[in-house]
Design a protein that fits this description.
Chain lengths: ~70, ~325, ~350
């Protein structure tokens, strides 16, 4: 199965959160994080948001993942 | 042409076929088409001729950064470029599913026209068939290409020598992610666009800069960099070791790959090449490749050594094998 | 690169702690994503000699029984549409794989999630869909959501063949195994997002340190260091390295959802046998989505393929390389057992990334 990646909620459409993950816009079900709001960071796993993270926690994860690759985020 | 959709009769070889060819295909190709409606195109050849063919079955047909038509031109001219051959001409064969929309065919033909002009090739001959609904998925295309070999020394997959430096011409994985994101069910929009583009101009510049020190070329299409390096390694009988952290990958592509559980190294590219150049010549090579827009972020990613197989140094200092991919992850990617 | 420095520091600390240990220690990880991540990062090579990192039953497809695979293939061959995750496609059943069945003309579709399978069912009302519901506590909530959605807008054509499992009972079962000698566990990252780290208290209570770890090389190195620290101090408790994603209490909404939709049952695990309370099946009104009740499908006992030692790999009794078929008759291109073909299988991870030094 896929890894989970953190992203920022851009908008909420009913049961779905539209999450921005480094230039990818992913639609994730938000049933497991009902209290998450626009602007929150969530961890997305296979189309499902599974937990809310602080911005610091999310960025730490993104940085760790990104350090594997040579082109840094603009 | 009347009606919205292609009918079986359009492939029958009679008047409807003739109309389809003239009014949609030839007229759509415009100045990119050459030759006449003879059974075969004839043109003079001097020196060695490079000859290649590929069939294109990408699904979906249209994706950010390109489509089946653009892919059908670039994929084939790039195969010629990988042998150090200037692309000259293509054939263009369509297999169309009954019911395919005329508008979509016109769109594809327009992309072929633009790509052919960009690549500096003419479409000299072709074929058009129509099959029953269900016998093809919309549209399949085959292009065969001829080019004149310009490289003074033969450029072949077998040319990698121990000590050679391995270069990639730019960021990897864009094409595969762009196509996969378009497929149903991924609920995925991405800024990532396919990199599909002709490579001859960059290859010609590279040959000009390093001459005989260009030992091998390969385009990492299906199977990505992993397939490319394994092919070069096996054909040349040399080991290749890369630094994983040196492989250029855009963040959006990297994260899309993580989310889809895919290995970036095995994602298809349609506008990149891998080159093996003699030790000490990579600076010159990088400089000339990165001059062009398509060569941004080109990088030396590793070297060839005596031995066999492909491996990678991971950022942590560990080592992993880079295996030939098994081709499961992304069907119908080109 | 700051991670590189941090990683070096952790590895140095691991080496120092390992030096204080009089014996070899066996650390088991029970998460397929950890297996892959560890092999891909080359971390195995960097660990001290006396630290043995062993993969346990962390691959959901691998631990599903041979009979389960056969039932999926049978469903497809009987004319049902089987919706499955990609890595189940090529797992060899007793007669053939789902991929073979598809080549023969059976309808098999690949999906990324349970909800996608449900959407397929809604869009294809003339087909009867059987979703192969495999996965641990990370994916079970997604299946539960799909069942709830199906209950609300039931087109009557969506069912699932269930093989969802709970990881802790398997950990307890292996702790008791006399031949394994597990000293500590690297606990799953994303299962723990759902369950919370408290899930592993009963495991730690047997005297084994349990550290929840993230998936980057630095996470794993840190977690190994934390485990070694506990061992040298004679401690055995649950700790959390992956604090950025795993919170105390886990995800309460997810756990409520699981208890609303599922009942816990005894499940058969390939290589281990039946483990009490280790599986999820739909209960109450959701039981009607079980494909076994709705279609002519049965999960029967089926023998492992001849020579296949996936069972022992899954329990952590042997490393993939110890199987005679590894790389010799069994490869990702031509797999004999699930461990070589599933993306999270130990054999596949070892073969693809760590098989030999070049």
């Amino acid at each position: 199965m896929c890894l989970a990646v953190p992203g920022r909620i851009e908008s909420i459409e009913g049961e779905t959160a539209v999450v921005d993950i480094v230039g990818n816009r992913v639609r994730a079900m938000r049933a497991l994080v009902p209290e998450a709001k626009v602007g929150d960071w969530v961890l997305v796993h296979a189309g499902l948001a599974v937990t809310i993270m602080s911005e610091e926690e999310a960025r730490e994860t993104l940085d760790l993942m990104q350090e594997k690759y040579s082109i840094e985020d603009a | 042409m009347s009606g919205e959709r292609i009918l079986l009769a359009h492939g029958g070889g009679g008047e409807l076929t003739d109309n389809l060819i003239r009014e949609v295909i030839l007229s759509g190709l415009g100045e990119a088409a050459g030759g006449s409606l003879e059974d075969a195109a004839v043109f003079p050849a001097k020196g060695s001729v490079a000859f290649t063919t590929d069939s294109y079955v990408v699904n979906p047909l249209f994706f950010p950064g390109g489509d089946l038509g653009r892919l059908a031109v670039c994929g084939t001219v790039n195969d010629l470029a990988m042998r150090g051959a200037r692309p000259l001409a293509l054939s263009l064969a369509f297999i169309i599913e009954e019911g395919f929309l005329f508008d979509d065919l016109r769109r594809v033909v327009e992309s072929v026209r633009q790509a052919a002009l960009e690549a500096g090739v003419k479409i000299l001959t072709g074929d058009t068939k129509v099959v029953e609904r269900g016998s093809a998925d919309g549209l399949f295309v085959n292009t065969a290409g001829v080019g004149e070999v310009v490289a003074p020394r033969e450029i072949t997959l077998c040319g990698v020598r121990p000590g050679d430096e391995i270069i990639v011409s730019g960021p990897l994985g864009n094409h595969a992610i762009s196509v996969l994101a378009q497929r149903e069910g991924l609920s995925f929009e991405t800024v990532v666009e396919s990199d599909v583009a002709p490579l001859w101009d960059m290859v010609e510049a590279l040959m000009g800069a390093v001459g005989d020190d260009l030992h091998a070329l390969n385009d990492p299409t299906r199977g990505g960099l992993a397939a490319s390096l394994n092919t070069l390694s096996a054909a040349s009988g040399a080991a290749i070791e890369i630094e994983e952290g040196a492989v250029p990958v855009e963040p959006a592509v990297a994260f899309a790959a993580e989310m889809l559980g895919l290995d970036v190294l095995s994602l298809a590219n349609e506008g990149k090449f891998v080159a093996a150049v003699a030790a000490g010549t990579s600076d010159r090579a990088i400089s000339v490749i990165s001059d062009g827009e398509k060569g941004a972020h080109c990088a030396v990613i590793g070297r060839a050594r005596k031995g066999a197989g492909v491996s990678s140094r991971t950022p942590g200092g560990g080592k992993r094998i880079v295996e030939m991919p098994y081709g499961e992850d992304a069907p119908r990617i080109c | 690169m700051k991670t590189h420095e941090a990683l070096s520091n952790e590895m140095a600390a691991c080496r120092e702690l390992a030096g204080e240990l009089p014996h070899r220690v066996t650390l088991m990880e029970v998460c397929g994503t950890h297996t892959v991540s560890i092999c891909r990062s080359g971390l195995r090579d960097l660990l001290p000699e006396n630290i043995r990192l062993v993969s346990g039953p962390g691959c959901p497809v691998c631990v599903s029984s041979q009979g389960y695979i056969d039932a999926c293939v049978e469903a497809a061959r009987e004319g049902l549409t089987v919706a499955t995750y990609g890595d189940m496609l090529r797992v060899p059943g007793s007669e053939m794989s789902l991929s073979d069945a598809r080549a023969e003309g059976a309808r098999v579709v690949t999906v990324y999630s349970a909800l996608e399978a449900l959407r397929y069912a809604a869009a294809h009302r003339d087909e009867k869909i059987v979703f192969a519901a495999v996965g641990f506590e990370t994916t079970a909530p997604a299946t539960a959501l799909a069942l709830k959605a199906a209950a609300e807008s039931d087109g009557g054509n969506f069912t699932a063949l269930f093989s969802h499992k709970r990881i802790r009972p398997a950990m307890i079962a292996l702790v008791g195994a006399p031949d394994l000698d597990i000293d500590a566990f690297l606990c799953p990252g994303h299962v723990s997002v759902i369950t919370g780290p408290e899930e592993y208290e009963p495991v730690a209570a047997t005297g084994r340190p349990c550290v929840v770890a993230g998936f980057e090389a630095l996470d794993v190195a840190r977690a190994v260091r934390m485990i070694l620290q506990q061992i040298t101090r004679g401690e055995a408790k649950v700790e959390n390295e992956y604090t950025r994603a795993v919170k105390p209490g886990g995800n309460p909404a997810a756990r409520r959802l699981l208890s609303e939709v599922f009942e816990v049952t005894d499940e058969h695990w390939r290589g281990i046998g039946v483990i009490a309370g280790s599986g999820f099946v739909p209960g109450g009104g959701f039981a009607r989505f079980d494909a076994i009740g709705r279609h002519d499908i049965e999960i029967r006992d089926a023998p492992e393929p001849a020579g296949c030692r996936c069972g022992e790999v899954i329990r952590g009794a042997i490393d993939p390389e110890e199987c005679a078929l590894f790389g010799a008759g069994c490869t990702p291109g031509h797999p004999i057992g699930p461990c070589m073909v599933s993306r999270e299988g130990s054999c596949s991870a070892h073969y693809k990334f760590a098989r030999r030094a070049v």
